[in-house]
Amino acid sequence: MADILAAPQQAVSKQADRDEQFRTLGAISAAHWVSHFHIFALPMLFPFLKQQLNVGYIELGFALTVFAVSSGLTQAPIGYLADHIGARKILLMGLCLGGAALIGLGLHLTYSWLIVSAAVLGLANSVYHPANYAILSAHMNEARMGRAFSVHTFAGFLGGAVAPAVMAGLVATVGVHGALIAAGAIGPLVALFIFGVGIPDANAVDRRTGGGSRQSVVTPALAALTIFFLLLSLSNAGISNFGVVALMSGYGATFSAANLALTAYLGASAAGVLAGGFLADHTDRHGQVAAVCFAVNAAILLVIAVSNLPQLPLIGLMGLAGFLSGVIAPSRDMMVRDAAPPGAAGRAFGIVSTGFNIGGIISPLLFGWIMDRNLPHWVFGGSVVFMVLTVILALATERRPERSRPARA
């Protein structure tokens, strides 16, 4: 009789757990959407900021460098704070801080405020990965953890994908000042949504393996993968941050057409992430997957770099290039996992991710300099060069995993 009475209670408890996980994943994914949307909000306004602030593209690129430096330097301290005062609290603060940075710039649009806002926005951006992954790791079902991370990543890509179209629509309706204020307001609104949903904090994180492996994590393989991440950042940053202005100034594209092309690139990247996760689960040759995708991507971007394509073929090729760049993401992460010493995956990913931060510092200045020299075709040509180097390094660093994969539920 007791078993009969307990069965409905267990079913209710399991349903409650599933509902909480669904709410948590949705709320955290919404925050990741905001993260990527805010990353792309400023670059989408570069053509207008250049005129209103009377500065060059290298000065605008410097703002993105400040963003990257601020975000890179604060990742580790923010992760420490998330573990000690609560990841949920840190996440809510980051959403509000990032929103305040853009709202402040919209209310006081000067170059000095642009630099200050970029620094504050970088600090806010450093919140998302430590806080989001801490909460997801603590409360998602282990059997579905990979899919939860995939949805989280997809949401981030989607935020970047819609940023060009959303910012273009805002500029057309409320102007540059209004666009900045509206983009910033999204942060506090999502923070209010997360607060209302009442997601759990990450205090329940299992720290039983906190000691991890004590062997050195700085291996030649991980050093090479750090360079791989740097090249990956450089190959994508020029298109993401300067693709619109390059297409407008060098290819005769309108602001709307250029934004559509970039939206196709970023939107297809989001779809490619989901396809790439399926592919990564069915092969151990992650370096070859990355190399093939980048080789095809390099060929596509070379066509764009050397020719003035009509609008529809341009958007189609940009979409294909974006899809392939998304497919690479899961294989990229598996390359790091395979190279990480046992029990040291966290530190390994932390090391190689510095390549992204370094790329974020270098790329705005490099591609801003290219645009100031009136060489818009080299925004795409430079990406081709970095992709070719990435192909070579992906093949050179590929290794078969030395340990068997855990069984999948």
Quick structural summary:
This protein is mostly helical and 409 residues long. Helix content is 82%, strand content 0%. It folds into two domains: 14-200, Growth Hormone, Chain: A; 218-401, Growth Hormone, Chain: A.
Show the helix and strand layout.
Layout (H helix, E strand, L loop, with lengths): L1 H43 L1 H8 L3 H29 L1 H21 L3 H15 L2 H12 L5 H53 L22 H31 L4 H26 L5 H21 L4 H29 L5 H28 L4 H21 L12
Task: Describe the model.
It is a single chain. The protein is an all-alpha fold and 409 residues long. It folds into two domains: 14-200, MFS general substrate transporter like domains (Growth Hormone, Chain: A, Up-down Bundle), CATH 1.20.1250; 218-401, Growth Hormone, Chain: A (Up-down Bundle). The protein has 13 helices and no strands. It has helices at 2-44, 46-53, 57-85, 87-107, 111-125, 128-139, 145-197, 220-250, 255-280, 286-306, 311-339, 345-372, 377-397.
Number of helices: 13
Helix share bin: over 70%
Mean pLDDT comes to 81
Work out the count of structural domains. Answer: 2
CATH superfamily of the largest domain: MFS general substrate transporter like domains
CATH topology term of the largest domain: Growth Hormone, Chain: A
Question: Helix and strand string, N-terminal first?
Answer: HHHHHHHHHHHHH
Q: What summary fits the major beta sheet?
A: none
N-to-C span:
32 Å
Please identify the top-level CATH class of the largest domain. Mainly Alpha
Summing up helix and strand content along with how strands pair, one would put the structural category as mainly alpha
Strand content: under 5%
From the 3D coordinates, which CATH architecture of the largest domain would you assign? Up-down Bundle
* Alpha-carbon Rg, integer: 22 Å
Q: How many strands in all?
A: 0
Shape: globular
